[in-house]
Amino acid sequence: MLVYLRLLKESFSFAMNALRNNKLRTLLSLLGVTIGIFSIIAVLAAVDSLDRKITKDLSSLDKNTIYLMKFSFGPSDIPQWKREQFPNVEYDEYTYMKGAMTNTAQMGYQIFTKRESIKYDSKTVSDVNVVPVSHEFIDIQGLEFEKGRFYNESEANSGATVIVLGDEIAKQLFENFDPIGKNVRLYGKRFTVIGVLKKEGAGLFGDSNDTTVFIPVNFVRQLYGDSNTTSTNVIILKPEKGIDMEAYKDEISQKLRSYRGLKSGEIDNFFINVFSGFTDFIDNILGQMNVVGWIISGFSLLVGGFGIANIMFVSVKERTNLIGIQKSLGAKNRFILFQFLFEAIILSVIGGIIGLLLVWIISVVLTKVVDFEFVLGIGNVLLGTGLAALIGLISGILPAIAASKLDPVEAIRTGM
After folding, report:
1. What is the C-alpha separation between 39 and 45, in angstroms, rounded?
2. Is pLDDT above 60 for 321?
3. Could you give the CA distance from residue 33 to residue 39 in angstroms, rounded to a whole number?
4. In contact, 56 and 64? CB cutoff 8 Å
5. Helix or strand holding residue 8 (H, E)
6. How many CB atoms neighbour CB 143 within 10 A?
7. pLDDT in tens, 133-179
8. Sign of the dihedral through C-alpha 194, 197, 202, 206
9. Contact 120, 191 (CB under 8 A)
10. What is the dihedral of CA 160, 161, 167, 170, to 10 degrees?
11. Which residue among 90, 133, 347, 350 sits deepest, i.e. has the most Cβ atoms within 10 Å of its Cβ?
12. Predicted TM-score (pTM) above 0.70
């Protein structure tokens, strides 16, 4: 055991000497490993960070949540011209479905409408994401409040001029003052602030709740009517846990077809979008990003491997005389073999550590600059180090075998 520890120490010393004596050659050779490890770990860290952010953003939503609307979340076999003729789901359909559907934990109604400006005294915030929803939305979305509350059923049904502000909107309008009970102007009307949401950070899919305001859906219906072509309506259904989702979707289709008077043979003029389908789509994209990252980085690692092999062949050539002396003094072939293998691995790991350090520096900088938490997990650090060691092992095996098989007499004579 002590012999191999001494061997490891000597190999580390030789590797450091290679770096000191041939700085440019060694650094250029290590550059391939550095770039390869950097590329792989950067992609994996980015994907892990995205996955963590998506999980956090969507944690409040049940994967079985259904969005009933005229658009599809994914590709559809129905021609586009026919899909464009699909009608919006209406509030009357929401109230009908709410009474007709079984096995439903919550059902809400939302209107996707255009962005607006919101004012308080002399301050104005433009391009605000306005979300008109029914009162059930808080139970479906799982909103968390910094202060105040969401509007109740009575306020929602009457279309009361009450509003819930996202954290960023509240700060821009009121700075350090308490907004609860204050009046803001939206759609030319005075809305009373009844709640402020907790800060949640930047959103991956457009607006986050920080830059959003929520108002009763019936206010917008009273303002624009139910035939507004500039908006998109959606019925959100949250089924009870443990039910058969296919049967539940069939029930939705049967109930809405019946209400709309669709005949047998006619296609559904609506889409039943299950939220899990959307998350599966995102997971697929993240998986493809991982694959592309591995392919691109693989070429860099291949170049890095050749660079390490080149260093080791040169090292064997330079130390031929030393190898001969070691063998003449009784050094075994495996001792010489391990000596050069360890040296190759140490050089490669140094290149990998540089790559990991670059990923860490960039992740720290980006986290501060773009308000998005990039995470370099311990698993990716271990993976990067392990890959670097593997590249060193593979690249150093041929030079190490060549060194271990040198004849001691010829080696001493050649090195003189």
Report:
1. 10
2. yes
3. 10
4. no
5. helix 2-21
6. 17
7. 999 998 888 788 999 999 999 999 999 999 999 999 999 998 888 89
8. negative
9. no
10. -160
11. 347
12. no
Distance separating alpha carbons of residues 274 and 289, to the nearest angstrom: 24
Sequential DSSP letters for 30-46: HHHHHHHHHHHHHHHHH
Beta-ladder partners of 116:
128
41/301 Cα distance (integer angstroms): 12
- Backbone CA torsion sign across 170, 175, 180, 182: negative
The amino acid occupying position 299 is F
* pLDDT at residue number 14: 65
Supply the pLDDT for residue 211. Answer: 87
Nearest Cα to 106, choosing from 70, 135, 72, 69? 135
Distance CA 92, CA 1 (A): 80
Backbone angles phi, psi at 381, to 5 degrees: -65, -45
What Å distances lie between residue 408 and 27, 304, 396, CA to CA? Answer: 31, 31, 21
**First CA to last CA distance, the chain:** 33
